[in-house]
Design goal:
The chain is an alpha/beta fold. It has 3 domains: 233 residues, Up-down Bundle (ABC transporter transmembrane region fold); 173 residues, P-loop containing nucleotide triphosphate hydrolases (Rossmann fold), CATH 3.40.50; 71 residues, Rossmann fold. A 6-stranded mixed sheet has the order 6-9-10-3-11-12, with helices on both faces. Strands 2-1-4-5 form a 4-stranded antiparallel sheet, with helices on one face. It has a two-stranded antiparallel ribbon with strand order 7-8. Bound molecules: adenosine-5'-triphosphate (ATP) and magnesium ion. Magnesium ion binds next to helix 12.
Length: 584
């Protein structure tokens, strides 16, 4: 309830207006049979035609008012639901931006998509239907039963009994169905995961001839969903039939008892019509409401899933400190004078891991210098980059950015000063220019061309449209090497104090790799550069090489020093020399 109230707060006036239209509509709907009864009674007792015409005009006005309120109510409801849907989606999106990778993984990409699209849609639909179909029910019951009691006590009790019976049964069904809907929603998540895997991994599936296996997996997920959905629908079909039977029994009882009462002179003939209509209206509304109630348990589950996201305390708490100065890229290369980033005894363990991924890591990156990290796969190189961008928080030690602990400064400010090329080159759908502007929204054409040229991406010139050449989602219409170079260009378009290249040269041939590093040296000489690499040739000229071995630093120094002092580095170097020799 709190959840809905939180999002309803900005729409208080609209809610009140909807409620008023509902109440007027209900009263008008009940007045119509009352006026009909009156007309019949006048006619039966031989009253004047004028009196009947008068009642007819009154009935027309009441019907017009009821129709008008219904129309206004629907329009307000549609606006209300669209507004609330938008607000919830924005809230979920804003929250997800605060999440670290670990927070995000807790939900999973597929589930986050289902939550943001499907779950909020269900809440929105349920909300509109609930207001239009369920909220009028209590008013309808109260007004209808009151009108029935006014005519005859027994009739009042009859309608009250039938209403209570259907309501209690409906509550029982809804409580049983909610468990099924909970399962249904998790099956939906599962379907999303399997479908996404199948669509994105279609080439791998074909290459390994796994079509049959995947079809089986899909069938199982679809069947699980279908079985639960059929179960839930069966429950509601039972409820529907019961309500219809109750309406009919109630009408028969009214006609029987009413007939006797008319015979005994305690009721007028027109009153039977009125009471029958009250009963039909009330039970009809309950039947309609239960069709909507089918959505309610589902919406409650969806609401809970959205709340899980909104109430999640992000692993990373944003710092309040500000970095006042902009990225210093034009200053002199004060070699050795300023540590842009320094790791002090940093240890890190993933939330779901049994042991530390990084242990006692200490090093620094200085302005004007190139620092390199080398090590085997899984030694923790990318984790170092993720820690300094604060995608995760250290579990021991601290990381300083320009002498500020990165936990004390806002993530926005921190990332504003760092330019990062992730290990997996990811481009956004749009044009090459759009992607470059992602790094620097104000980049001029000249700046973009310069960044492309430094990143050895001159191939863009030959593309149809040049800077406006089309980029598919993820950059899949480019080769791995081209993607890497474009993502390097994107990082270079941004002015930063620190440039981080996470294994960004691996898909480049040796010649391009060398040309790119040479161009980089000139282009970003006033910033600190951190290169993570697997190939010794990429980092051979670095000012400081950090050798990572199973999350620990095995050695720090220049190439020649490490060859003498660090056995791990020597091993890597020798294996690559041999590989190179064999390859020749
Ligand atoms: N999200 C995660 N949850 C748990 N463990 C993780 C996670 N990401 C990485 N790891 C583990 O942390 C270790 C270091 O991973 P990292 O990605 O830093 O390696 P790397 O040195 O960059 O390897 P590569 O050269 O293959 O890119 C690995 O053993 C990996 O299994
Ligand atoms: Mg890596």
């Amino acid at each position: 309830m709190k959840f809905i109230l939180r999002f309803l707060r900005p729409y208080k006036i609209k809610c009140m207006a909807v409620l008023i239209t509902i109440i007027i509509d209900v009263i008008c709907s009940m007045l119509v049979p009352t006026i009909t009864a009156d007309m019949i009674n006048i006619a039966v007792s031989g009253g004047s035609i004028d009196a009947i015409i008068q009642r007819g005009i009154l009935m027309l006005l009441v019907s017009l008012l009821s129709g008008g309120c219904m129309l206004a109510g629907s329009w307000l409801c549609a606006k209300l639901s669209a507004g609330i849907g938008k607000d919830i989606r924005n809230a979920v999106y804003d929250k997800s931006l605060e999440f670290s990778s670990a927070d995000f993984e807790e939900f999973g990409t597929a589930s986050m998509i289902t939550r943001t699209l499907n779950d909020i849609n269900v809440i929105q639909q349920a909300f509109v239907m609930f207001i239009q179909m369920v909220i009028p029910v209590p008013f309808m019951c109260v007004v209808g039963i009151f009108f029935a009691f006014r005519i005859n006590r027994n009739m009042g009790f009859l309608i009250l009994g039938a209403t209570l019976f259907v309501l209690i049964f409906a509550m029982f069904i809804v409580s049983r169905a909610s468990r099924i809907f909970e399962k249904l929603q998790s099956f939906l998540d599962r379907m999303n995961v399997v479908l996404r895997e199948n669509i994105t991994g279609v080439r791998v599936i074909r290459a390994f001839n796994k079509e049959k296996h995947e079809t089986g997996r899909m069938k199982k997920t679809f069947t699980d969903y279908a079985v639960s959905a059929i179960h839930a629908n069966r429950l509601f079909a039972g409820l529907d039939s019961l309500a219809m039977v109750t309406i009919n029994i109630c009408v028969v009882a009214i006609l029987y008892l009413g007939g006797n009462n008319v015979g005994a002179g305690t009721m007028k003939i027109g009153d039977i019509t009125a009471v029958t209509e009250y009963a039909i209206w009330i039970l009809f509304y309950i039947v309609m409401a239960q069709m909507v109630i089918i959505l309610v348990p589902r919406a409650i589950i969806c609401k809970r899933r959205i709340e899980e996201v909104l109430l999640k305390t992000p692993e990373i708490k944003d710092g309040t400190g500000r970095l006042k100065d902009k990225a210093n890229v034009s200053g002199k290369a004060g070699i050795g004078d300023c540590d842009v980033i320094s790791f002090e005894n940093v240890s890190f363990r993933f939330a779901d891991a049994d042991e530390d991924t990084l242990r006692e890591i200490s090093f620094c990156c200085k302005r004007g210098e190139t620092t390199a990290i080398i090590g085997g796969t899984g030694s923790g190189k990318s984790t170092v980059a993720k820690l300094l961008l604060r995608f995760h928080d250290v579990t021991g030690g601290r990381i300083l950015f320009k002498n500020h602990d990165i936990r004390d400064i806002s993530q926005h400010d921190l990332r504003e000063h760092i330019s990062y090329v992730p290990q997996k080159a990811w481009l956004f759908s749009g044009t090459v220019a759009d992607n470059l502007k992602y790094g620097n929204s104000g980049a001029t054409k000249e700046e973009m061309i310069r960044a492309l040229s430094t990143a050895q991406s001159d191939f863009v010139k030959d593309l149809k449209g040049g800077l406006d050449a089309y980029v598919a989602q993820g950059g899949t219409n480019y080769s791995g090497g081209q993607r890497q170079r474009l993502s390097i260009a994107r990082a270079l378009a941004k002015k930063a104090d620190l440039y981080v290249f996470d294994d960004s040269f691996s898909a480049l041939d040796f010649k391009t790799d060398a040309a790119l590093r040479h161009a980089l040296e000139k282009e970003i000489k006033n910033s600190a550069v951190l290169i993570i690499a697997q190939r010794i040739s990429t980092i051979i000229h670095a000012d400081r090489i950090i050798v990572l071995d199973d999350g620990k630093i095995a050695g720090i120094g220049r190439h020649e020093e490490l060859l003498k002092s660090c056995p791990v580095y020597r091993d890597i170097s020798e294996s690559q020399m041999k590989g190179g020799a064999n390859g020749r």
